[in-house]
Predict the structure.
Amino acid sequence: MSFFFISDEVTTEGLARFGDVVVLVAGGCVALVAVSRFLPPASFVARVEVENRSEYAVALRVAERSGESWTPLGTAQAKQVTAFEDVYDQGGTWVFEFAHGPFGREVTMSRDDLRRGGWRVTVPDELIAQLRAASTPPTPVFGDEEGEGR
């Protein structure tokens, strides 16, 4: 006798339950494939660039509407342009949220404006001014041997 089996007997009732489970799983798979054929394919933008002229690394996320289903993009590095690849297409309106610590700003742009601008957005000057007014220390730059930033 095995530790994994209570009985060595195979019952008709046990086989029937197993058959029911197999039918349910197979039916679920068929239903999933059938429904997925009617859904529109996901759309992605190949590259979105964020220009950050400040001395602060800024966290970035995007949504179709303010406060709804944010998609995190990553961090826009200080004093450089950071590229984000294969960004989920938010549709006709894009809301970018820029944040550093407790400070943040939202920028709303149309898809057409983004396309015309080469899919590049800039960290808002208002956020940079707010961080400087609060005497927020700059984000450390690692790998800079002279310690002077970029």
In short: The chain is about 25% helix and 35% strand.
